[in-house]
Each structure stands twice: as C-alpha cells, then as structure tokens.
C-alpha cells in the first residue's frame, strides 16, 4: 500500500493535465508563475465590493454576527481571482459556521458548489448546519438543493421511472426463466435499463442541486460532474488537515477553484504503519501550506467562542502563539453557574480545568488499579496488534464517580462526554456505566458520549472527562504524547475539563507542551487526589513521584503487556538495587554451600573415611580462597 501511494504521488507530479490544477500549481511547484495571489492577500480592493452588504444580510436574518476574520475569509473565498484559499480554524473559532455562511451566499447567487470531507460525520455536520442557516436567513431552496450520496440514491430509487424500470427487469427475468433470452442478454438489458433511469432521473435531480456533498474519493462527485447541468464554481474541502495529500488530488482534479478549511494543529490523517509515517503520508496539503502561509491566500480565524478561558489557555499558548481571543461570554462559562445544588465539599473540583493525579495514590491495593493493563479485542480471533489496546480500572472508576456527582448536582447526561485515547478503556467505561445504570435504574446514561479522541473532533460538550489510561514505569504515554490529539480533547470542553491520569508521567514528559499542561494544573492548585472525586479526603503533596515501587514486581504481575514486562525485567537487572540484591543473594548461596560442605566433612570424619575427608577439605580450602 505504501509503495502504491509513492507511485501515485509521482504520477500526480508527472501528469501534465494535473499541472492546471490549482492545488498542484500553488503548492507543489517551487516558483509558480501565478503566485501573484500574494499580491491580493492583504488587498481588500480585489475582494468583491458587493460583499459589503453581507454584514447587513446577517443582521436582518438574525444570524449570530460573524467577526471580522470570518467575514474576510468569506470574501477571500468568493473572490474568483483567488484560485486557492486556506482557512485555518482553531477549536471553537467557528470554521464550520464560516463555511456555512459562504455556502449560503453562493446558493443565494444561484451558483453550484462541491463540498468534500474525509468523514461522513464532518459532512453531515456542515450539511445540517447549512440547512439550518438557510432557513434562518429566509433563503428558499429546492428540496434537492443540498444533495449527498445517500439522498441521491434514495431519490433515484423512489422515482416513478425507477419503479417502471423494476417492472421491466421483472419481465426480463420471466423471459429468461422461460428460456426466451440468455443470461448475457438479461444482464446487458438490465444494466442498460439501470443506466437509462440513472441518466434520465439523475439529470432532472442534478439540475436542482446547488451543493453536492461527498466524502473524499467518493464516485458521487465524478458522477454529478458528468452532467452538463452541474458546473460547480468552487470546491470546499472541510477538515482538510485530515486528508492525506494522496487523497486530495483525484477529488479536486476538475475543480476551478478550491477552498480548504481545517486545522493542522488538530487531528492529522490516520496512518497505521511506521513506514507510511516515515514517508509522510499522514501529511496533508494544509500542513505544507501552513509552513509557507505567507505565500498563499491563507487566513486564520482568531475569535474563540467555545471554551472557558482557563480551558483554552494551554491550547492557545502551545499551538497558536497566543493569537486566539476568547470571547467575553466564554469567561462566564463555568459549572458553578449551573450546578444545583452547589457542592459543599471539594468545590474547586468543579472548576474549569482540573487534574485527578493517580500518582498520589499510596494505598497498596488501590495503587495497583491505577496501573495500565493490556487488553485484547474480544472480536479479534488472535491476540494480534490489531486487537491490542489498554485499559485503566482506577481511572474508569474515577470517571464514573465524578459523572455520578455531576448528575447529582444537576448536569444533564447529554452535556457530558467521557473521552479516552483507547478502545479498551472505552469498553471498560461503558461496562461500568451499564453497571451503574443496572444498579440504580438510571437509563439516561445512554445520552452521554463515551468515545475515543478521534470520534469527537468538531464536537463540543459542557463537560469533558478525559482518562489518560497509560501509567507505567517506562513513562510511555502512547496517544497522549501526540500533542494534536491532546489539543482536540481539551478543546471539546466548554465549562469543565477533568484530566484523570498519572501526574508523574505528565511532569516528567520529554515534551515541553505536556509539562506546561501539568504546570497549568499545579500552579492553579487544581491537582486532586483520586479520593476527592468520590467526595473523600486524600493527601495532595507539592511534588510528584513514582508510585510503581522499586522492584516493579506488582506492576509486572498486573500489566499483561509482554513488551512492558520485558522492559521492567531489563530495568531491574540494570538497576543498582537489583545488583545489590543479586550480590547479596550470591553471598547467601555461597554461605549455604560452605555450611553444607562443613557438615559433610564432619560426618565423614566421624565415619573415619580419611581419603574422603582429605578430598572434602581440599574442596573447602579452594572455596574459601
């Protein structure tokens, strides 16, 4: 697969037709002649003057007023002189809202657009928001104006001509059964009927389409592009930072202009092998454009409308050079304004950004449960890497404990998400949640999101409980060490983000950004003992320390991870404590051997076996030396 992707990219670069594609021209060529787009990057004179009326249109329609950066991005995207426009949308800055306003404007101008995204979820999100915004703005459109693959298929299949065609196929089947036609003739005529219906009904439907929605690489776009009635002026690629470079080219091959929207500082394209990563297949066009953003029609949205400022600070500092401005309303976002009744104990535990530090657990039995445990997918036939994951029992219990207290204080279950990097932990949390429901009769827990980081990009929740899972003496953090994933999970929260994990690993991380995150908790004095999550007291020290013990035996017995266990064994063998114990053990063995020899000599002496006595004494003498 990797080799195929390599060859594909080479073919793309060599393909002469591809040279006319704006993405190729403006990103692959070293010095493209048409890179005069930089001349219009800051020039508002080249953006359509009629867009000055866009602001009043928003006000009249009762749309939440877009900010200056969002309006500028829309104007840039509508400017036909800009062949490629990049919109970077950090968390909570209204990227999808901006794209929705852009689509509404294009629809109002009776233009046609293609919208592409890497996932069905992202596609459904922008499509739903566009429908709502059109309605709020009073823009009436045909029922087929916003079309995706599934809806198009349903329209075709439910049409009168499709029903008539089905009758024709049934007649053909009877003729075949009666021996009047051959199987080859049956297949040819059936396919001919299907193609005829698709073309006839498709032409009528596509004539009313204003926006065609499809996932990257879907054949739907190629199909609608074949119809003369569909001539898109623009291709929008949402979540473009998740689209591998090799995926992008076929999707935009026939497009006149392109708008890419996404955030290279959030989730990248998903690549499974080290080989693929080494080749850079996880990189998107946006990654490369960001490195040379001054050379392109590039803009970053800067007003953050989602998270409390304390939640947004770490992300803003580590990824966006403090360019994000938190909206005034977000400063008021707090759990304390909606909790009813108010908690009487550990009230600070419900502040915007808190850490439950499992390394503070010193109870021997409880400490064991804070360690990570390797688990295997029960649906996997073999215990292969594909079915390999991790779980952490203590963290799962803490998450459920805090969840129950949130419900007690009036937080709605649909406003809470429990997020983790590992499917093994997702399964464990789900199991504990179901047990909680069975014991209490509470059924609304099904409204609560329990999922992995990848499943929540683009979403937001009043409360996010994050369980880190990894906790080992090797200080391996796994997915949590991938900063872009960490950026995504923290910025899903609006009012309250609880990080449950090993503070020792955070504080000792090799990555400066992760140590800064730990400092955010520590400096704000929002670092808590695991007991606190259940309303119980627990000792919180000013320092962090390893809670795995010296010989790592308890961890090795609990881990179930062969690779980690082997590492622990090597660590013990090379550690000073282990060497000292080994030397002491050797001395004891030697002492025991000498005592046995002396006893034997005495026994032989009593028996008068002089030859045997001399031999034993010689051996004893040699051993002593």
UniProtKB/TrEMBL annotation:
Keyword list, A-Z: ATP-binding, Helicase, Hydrolase, Nucleotide-binding
SMART domains: AAA, DEXDc
Catalytic activity: ATP + H2O = ADP + phosphate + H(+)
InterPro entries listed in its UniProt record: AAA+_ATPase, Coronavir_polyprotein_1ab, DNA2/NAM7-like_C, DNA2/NAM7_AAA_11, Helicase_ATP-bd, P-loop_NTPase, SF1_C_Upf1
UniProt superkingdom: Eukaryota
Residue stretches making up the AAA+ ATPase domain: 81-290
CDD domains linked: SF1_C_Upf1
Biological-process GO terms, alphabetical: termination of RNA polymerase II transcription
Pfam families: AAA_11 (PF13086), AAA_12 (PF13087)
MF annotations from Gene Ontology: ATP binding; DNA helicase activity; hydrolase activity; RNA binding; transcription termination site sequence-specific DNA binding
GO cellular component, one term: nuclear body
Domain Helicase ATP-binding stretches: 62-302
PANTHER family tied to this protein: DNA-BINDING PROTEIN SMUBP-2, DNA2/NAM7 HELICASE FAMILY MEMBER
Family per similarity comment: Belongs to the DNA2/NAM7 helicase family.
Protein's name in the database: Enhanced RNAI (RNA interference)
């Amino acid at each position: 697969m990797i080799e195929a992707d390599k060859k594909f990219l080479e073919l793309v670069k060599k393909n002469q037709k591809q040279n006319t594609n704006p993405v190729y021209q403006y990103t692959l060529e070293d010095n493209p002649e048409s890179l005069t787009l930089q001349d219009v990057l800051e020039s508002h004179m080249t953006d359509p003057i009629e867009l000055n009326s866009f602001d009043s249109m928003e006000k009249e329609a009762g749309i939440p007023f877009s900010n200056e950066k969002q309006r500028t991005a829309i104007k840039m995207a509508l400017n036909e002189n800009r062949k490629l426009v990049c919109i970077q949308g950090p968390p909570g800055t209204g990227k999808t809202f901006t794209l929705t306003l852009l689509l509404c404007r294009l629809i109002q101008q009776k233009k046609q657009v293609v919208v592409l995204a890497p996932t069905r979820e992202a596609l459904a999100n922008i499509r739903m928001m566009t429908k709502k915004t059109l309605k709020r703005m009073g823009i009436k459109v045909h029922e087929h104006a916003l079309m995706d693959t599934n809806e198009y298929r349903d329209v075709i299949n439910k049409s009168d001509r499709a029903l008539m065609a089905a009758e024709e196929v049934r007649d053909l089947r009877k003729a075949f059964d009666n021996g009047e036609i051959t199987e080859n003739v049956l297949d040819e005529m059936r396919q001919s009927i299907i193609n005829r219906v698709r073309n006839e009904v498709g032409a009528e439907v596509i004539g009313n389409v204003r926006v065609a929605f499809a996932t990257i690489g879907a054949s739907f776009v190629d199909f609608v592009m074949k119809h003369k009635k569909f001539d898109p002026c623009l291709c929008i690629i949402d979540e473009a930072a998740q689209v591998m470079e090799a995926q992008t080219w076929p999707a935009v091959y026939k497009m006149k202009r392109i708008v890419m929207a996404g955030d290279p500082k959030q989730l990248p394209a998903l690549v499974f092998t080290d080989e693929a990563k080494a080749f850079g297949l996880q990189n998107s066009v946006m990654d490369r454009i960001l490195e040379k953003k001054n050379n392109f029609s590039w803009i970053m949205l800067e007003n953050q409308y989602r998270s409390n400022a304390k939640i947004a600070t770490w992300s803003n500092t580590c990824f966006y050079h403090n360019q994000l401005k938190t909206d005034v309303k977000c400063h008021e976002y707090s759990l304390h304004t909606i909790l009813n009744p108010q908690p009487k104990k550990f009230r600070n535990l419900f502040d915007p950004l808190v850490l439950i530090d499992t390394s503070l657990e010193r109870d021997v039995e409880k400490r064991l449960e804070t360690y990570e445990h390797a688990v295997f997918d029960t649906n996997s036939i073999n215990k292969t890497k594909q079915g390999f994951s991790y779980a952490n029992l203590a963290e799962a219990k803490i998450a459920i404990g805090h969840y129950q207290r949130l419900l007690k204080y009036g937080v709605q279950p649909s406003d809470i998400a429990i997020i983790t990097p590992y499917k093994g932990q997702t399964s464990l949390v789900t199991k504990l949640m179901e047990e909680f429901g069975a014991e209490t009769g509470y059924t609304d827990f099904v409204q609560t999101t329990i999922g992995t980081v990848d499943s929540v990009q683009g979403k937001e929740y009043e409360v996010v409980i994050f369980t880190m899972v990894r906790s080992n003496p090797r200080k391996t953090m796994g997915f949590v060490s991938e900063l872009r994933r960490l950026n995504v999970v923290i910025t899903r929260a609006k009012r309250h983000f609880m990080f449950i994990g090993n503070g020792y690993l955070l504080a000792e991380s090799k990555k400066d950004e992760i140590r800064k995150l730990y400092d955010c908790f520590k400096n704000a004095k929002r670092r808590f003992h695991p007991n606190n999550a259940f309303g119980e007291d627990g000792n919180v020290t000013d320092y962090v320390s390893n809670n795995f013990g010296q010989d790592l035996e308890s961890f090795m017995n609990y881990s179930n991870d062969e690779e980690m266990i082997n590492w622990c064994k090597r660590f013990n063998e090379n550690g000073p404590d282990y060497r000292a114990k080994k030397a002491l053990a050797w001395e004891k063995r030697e002492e025991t051997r000498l005592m046995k020899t002396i006893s034997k000599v005495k026994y032989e002496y009593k028996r008068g076996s002089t030859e045997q006595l001399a031999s034993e004494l010689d051996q004893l003498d040699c051993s002593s030396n």
